[in-house]
Amino acid sequence: MNYAKIQRNLRVRKSKTGLGLFTQSPLKRGDFVIEYTGKLLSREKADDKGGRYLFDISNRRAVDGTNRKNVARYINHACRPNCEVDIRRGRIFVFACRKIKVGEELNYDYGKEYWDEYIKPRGCLCEKCQDSQ
């Protein structure tokens, strides 16, 4: 399937954690949402650069999603996510892992390494963690 041709009605707006990406149309489980894009970097260059928008696609390469044209960079972390990521041939695709309602913020689990480095020190702000406090 050519995911590049699929256009979703998505909107960046303020969320509980800063800016977030919200759907303006309903999504079904398994629907393609968006591709995370950016410059491909070697592991060494990615480690030297550092930053929050680096997405590891293998143990040798990462995608630098810093560019604001990469709207997928606004998808926030959640411990109980509504999206999941699938890496195929070095490309990062985001899919709905459950039904998502109009106006709902999109999120996925960023993984243990990101959690330990960026989220754990300040506390998780996702809905699941905030509801349990």
Helix content: 10-25%
Number of distinct helices: 3
- Looking at how many chains there are and whether they match, the oligomeric state comes to single chain
- Please mark out the parts with pLDDT under 50 across 5 or more consecutive residues, or reply none: none
How far the N terminus sits from the C terminus, by CA atoms, comes to: 42 Å
Biggest beta sheet summary: 3 strands, antiparallel
> How do the helices and strands follow one another from N- to C-terminus?
EEEEHEEEEEEHH
Question: Brief description of this entry?
Answer:
Helices cover 15% and strands 33% of the residues. It is of the alpha+beta class.
If you had to describe this structure to a student in words, what would you say it looks like?
- With 133 residues, the chain is an alpha+beta fold.
- The chain has one domain: Beta-clip-like (Beta Complex), CATH 2.170.270.
- It has three helices and ten strands.
- The strands form four sheets. It has a three-stranded antiparallel sheet with strand order 3-9-8, with no helix packed on it. It has a three-stranded antiparallel sheet with strand order 4-6-5. A two-stranded antiparallel sheet has the order 1-2.
- The radius of gyration is 15 Å and the shape is globular.
- The chain starts with 9 loop residues before the first strand and ends with a helix.
